[in-house]
Amino acid sequence: MTYLYEPYIKTKIQRRWFEKMDYLAEKFSERADHFDREGRFPFENVNDLKKAGYLSLTIPKEFGGEGLSLYEFVLLQERIAAGDAATALCIGWHLGSFLELSEERTWDDTALRHLCEKVVQNQALVNRAATEPATGSPTRGGMPQTKATVDGTDWIINGTKTFTSMAPALDYAIVSAQIDDTGKKGNFLINMSQDGVKIEETWDTVAMRGTRSDDLIMENVRVGSEALVEEERGKSGLPKAWLLHIPACYLGVAIAARNEAVQFAKTYKPNSLPGPIGDVPEVQRKIGEMELELFKARELIYSVAAKWVNEPESRMEMGPSLLAVKHVATNSAAKVVDLAMRIVGARSLAMSSPLQRHYRDVRAGLHNPPMDDMVISSLAQRALNTKGD
Predict the structure, then answer these.
(1) What percent of the chain has pLDDT over 70?
(2) Are 42 and 91 within 8 A, CB to CB?
(3) d(CA 235, CA 237)
(4) In the prediction, which pLDDT does 388 show?
(5) Class of domain 128-231
(6) How many C-beta atoms lie closer than 10 Å to residue 173's C-beta?
(7) What are the φ and ψ backbone dihedral angles of 201, each rounded to 5 degrees?
């Protein structure tokens, strides 16, 4: 099924990395059901990605990484997700964080270099920890309840973070916290092996079970002054293009479901028909609808990613476009999976069918940021605030 990706592979570097991930994604697909049933973190998959050097994909070349762009990031994440969605979503947070840091350079260069070197040399795994029970998604702008208090030259961190993907495997977390009573917030780099850091196993969902997005608990975690790696920025920051890894992941799920349904349509021959069900006009209509949904969503995500890379002067105005990609892609992905299940029928509900896992996993995309209501509101505000000719 690599022909599905051929239109989007533009360079030799992209092809080289795609072939690596294509091979690994096939291995991941064989393990996906096992991790899902057990609700276990896919350590084996992540180890394979470490051996392939994938954790350094978006780290700048000056710090020893591969220095690949948003476009390559989206392409490779989509392919991995077609093998195992939970693995793709997990590693996407790690890679996306470094893509954002490398493009915005809001950290001190020394701090960023040190963290990048830990990834390049030691295969350290990193994720942001921002979501909290009281604030919901950090994209809503709520002030974190996690608090950082000055104690001499150190900071004392207390708080709870939810949805901390890769929790059992993380080496470092970039934790958002209130800075004392200043009304400001900052990001602190926390070593997960420090005293006072613990994981509470709260992840008990029907979707993306392998992400192990458990709670991160911090009780009187003492860190040095250098742990404050970033203070609150104003509204001038770039749009979060790295979040395109989210729609890329769910399009990967949709592609996997599409492939399953098309193969079934080609090979299933009930004795009531002279040939396979793929000859039935209604089945062909559903396949055509899947193809159309994937085409429009993938054309959108790859064109926006390419514009981000090729037109850096336009980035500040690309926020609504990035939001639109997520809305279109995740909703199209859900529709594709639904159509795939209608083609396969009741067999798609069997626990032995990967389609039931795709059905559960794809729904998670509707709850990943940015939410649909925020996207629609943002587009409406842009239209209303734009002066006519």
Answers:
(1) 97
(2) no
(3) 6
(4) 61
(5) mainly beta
(6) 24
(7) -80, 90
The four Cα atoms 153, 157, 163, 165 give a dihedral, to 10 degrees, of: 40
User: What gap in Å lies between CA 119 and CA 144, rounded to an integer?
Assistant: 27
* 190 touches 146 (CB < 8 A): no
How far apart, in Å, are the Cα atoms of 314 and each of 101, 227, 306?
A: 19, 33, 12
The whole-number pLDDT of residue 385 equals 87
List beta partners, residue 164.
214
Residue 246, amino acid: I
Pick the CATH number of 241-383 from 1.20.140.10, 3.40.50.2300, 1.20.120.140, 3.10.20.30: 1.20.140.10
Tokens matching residue 197:
């850091």
The helix (H) or strand (E) run that includes residue 173 is strand 172-179
Q: Which residue has the tokens 């995500």?
A: 301
> What is the reported pTM?
0.95
Q: Each residue of 40-67: b (16+ CB within 10 Å) or e?
A: ebbeebbebbbeeebbbbbbbeebebbb
* Domain residue extents for the chain: 2-125, 128-231, 241-383
Residue 242's identity, in one-letter code, is W
- Closest by CA to 106, choosing from 223, 187, 175, 190, is 187
Amino acid letter, residue 159: G
- Quote the pLDDT of residue 124: 98
Identical fold, 2-125 and 241-383:
no
Assigned superfamily of 2-125: Acyl-CoA dehydrogenase/oxidase, N-terminal domain (1.10.540.10)
- Alpha-carbon Rg for the chain, nearest whole angstrom, is 22
